[in-house]
Design a protein that fits this description.
The protein is α+β, with helices and mostly antiparallel strands. The protein has four domains: 13-19 and 231-353, 2-Layer Sandwich (Phosphorylase Kinase, domain 1), CATH 3.30.200; 36-228, no CATH class; 358-487 and 498-516, Orthogonal Bundle (Transferase(Phosphotransferase), domain 1); 531-539 and 556-673 and 727-833, no CATH class. Helix content is 63%, strand content 6%. The strands form four sheets. The protein has a six-stranded mixed β-sheet with strand order 1-4-5-6-8-7, with helices on both faces. A three-stranded antiparallel β-sheet has the order 9-11-12, covered by helices on one side. A hairpin with a 5-residue loop joins strand 11 (398-400) and strand 12. The longest helix has 30 residues, at 635-664. The radius of gyration is 33 Å and the shape is flat. The two termini are 54 Å apart.
Amino acid sequence: MSERPGINLPSVAAGGAQAAAAPLIDAPPPRDVRRAADLSRLLVSSALLVVTVLPAVATRASTRRMQQGLLDAATALAPGLRDGLVGTVQVVAVVAPVLALGVLVARRRGDAILRVVPAAALGALVAWSVTHLALMRGRPDLWPQVLVGRGGLVHAGWPSAVYLAACAAAVVAAGPWLDTRLRRTWWTLTVVCAGLSVAAAAVVPLEAAAALAVGGVAGSAVLLLAGGPAERPAPQVVADAVVACGIPLAALRETPSPDRRPGEGVRYAAETTTGARLAVQVLGPEDRNRDLFHRLARLTMLRHPADTAALSPLAAVEHELLMLVFAGRTGARVAEPVIAYPVPGGGALLVTVERAARPLSAFPGEEMTDQVLTGVWTSVARLQEHRLAHRALRPEHILVEPDDASRLTAFARAQLGARPDALGSDIAELLATTSTHVGAHRATQCALAGLGPRLLATALPYLQPLALLGPARREVARYDQARARAAGTGAKRRTVRPGGRPSLLRDLSAEVVGATGAEPAPLAHLARFTWKSVFGLVGAFLVLHLALPQFANAPAVLTALRDANWWWVLAVLPVTFVSQAFSTSLQMGTIPARLPFGPTYEVQFASSFLNRITPSNVGGMALNLRYLQKTGIETGAATASVGLQSLAGAVSNAVVAAGFFAWTGRHHAGVHLHLPAGRYVLPAVALTLAAGCLLGVTPPGRRFLREKVWPFLHAATSTVTGIASDPAKLALLVAGALGLPLIQVVGLALSVHAFGGDLPFAQVGAVYMAARLVANAAPVPGGLGALEAGLIAGLTALGLAAGAATSAVLVYRLLTFWLNVPLGALALGFVQRKGYV
């Protein structure tokens, strides 16, 4: 490396006497963090749990036969050998936890014990719930008889899957405080105990596998909530590495920064014995794990993520050193590199020259002068001309010195010979993040002064959220939310405009077009997957498995139509359009702001299409939520509105059903809902209480409640209060909620009359509401199949001929259910083009 003022790396011996003295180390006590390794373990364990439980639920008979085969193989062993295996497992299951707890106590790891105990309890609770709710029915019929008369120290069925899950959860929770050898030893003992229990037929195979997966989930969840020690080198190890690379270190001080993002390591301020000041960035295994998550997110979301291969901490700092050298050669003002060096334990450090400077993000908007911003953009222009993409170009990575000179830092993800999308995203990211401080117009003018119109115009296709993946996108979203909240302050009865939510990126596009004179450019297609493509795949799957069988009845429908009274059939047609009007009324009645009827009506048609391809109306609710957010309504209020719609629909269905049943003097045609609710109540309550305790007793949990839950509940409460104080809104809500089921009953009655039926309206209503209650329990879109069967059975039970009842129901569903598919698809495309969703 070239020489730096006050630094003479080659002559280590010159400062040897002073370097040998112990440097002064100033670092805050280590604090617990939420580690990326725990998140990855949680995801993997959850996937394994799903893969284990799914066969037991979906293919119960096959699972039972498979486990019976394994059980037969186990029972082929000699009884003495099986009892010996069980006894060995029981001894280990008793002794190992006691020894493990003793090790933690001897090492004074009280913080580890505070994680182990709740993790073991949570693992046992979850394992018991999973076993009783899902896995118990997949047990072989002969399994309980195999355990009769057998045992080791105690009954052969112990340790159970619940105990194994508790042990696995405890091992995971204690892992961060154990060295690699001990951690592997405890994991090996746990897995071997589970395997020997299966081999001795003491535990069902699927339950043993689920227990290990549950242990991983519970232990990782506790570590994520309560935190654990970061996998980073200790300050003394860092100081030793700085001395080892030839720098005569006098003092090392950790410099925590509020702008430092997870995965960017720990920063130290160093001072040499000659008085030179250095900045030391240290990366550890924890930072590498977080970077892997960043790369995975980009690979999943973007068509061309343009990421380099996964790097070790040493390779990462060497890459950043090379990028700093190249960036300096382009003429851009960047941090001055000194050396990259490995740190024992898998870490690495990067040393740069320290200068008196503040990050640009620490400046209030009025202190960000045009001179500073233009200087930053001038450096960016040099990088752009040499096709060097920074790929993390945000204010916190720009240092401003007292003389307003700026330097770019954090080149860890930089790329040489970058693609146009990476270069354009750099400009878009810095333009958007500086706009949140100084406004779109001023930020654009400074960028124009530093870049010129040609380079600035290249950002137009990338002024979109996907180009700002990560902290920049969240910053822009918070900025837009604050603007939307300010626009709605003091105007609870304001009229909102569909698609009119404040958008910084939209404003920037208009500013760039006006400043450069360029033609508006279409947004670049960056997404690998979109919600539209996902809905399309899900819809195609459901159509193949649910809709196609319905076409088997098409000949019967056509035959019935020849004998039907066409005037009555045509009278059913308006039901589809009227029902969407009631849905619109319900939507408008659940939000204090005034929604325009026309766009809301179109969105309801689009929602009806999504409800045809998603179960439990999930697609329609998501679209309504998006529509409300795009009008500028706060997320909490929009979510409360969608939830209130669902609640109002459920209450109105119950009221209308009770009214029809009382009117007819009948019950619901012998239809009874056999929902084993009691079987699920206790596990659900227990899991809810456990989750609540974890949220309440851990700092991250309390922060989540304070920052996320309470603001959401406040917004939701304000929404409900605003509606309750407005009679007009209440009238719209009640009219929409009651009108939806009633208009469907009218449609069914018209269909029945079209085929010669003369049932009273009250009886038709009772049949429809009873069938609807049954169909709501079916996890298929629109109760497909279940509703038809219930309607035909109910109409037949009331005396309508079977042929007429079948034809009436099929025509009714054709005109009120399937007609929404083409109309809703057209409406969905229309509202997307208009920017309503």
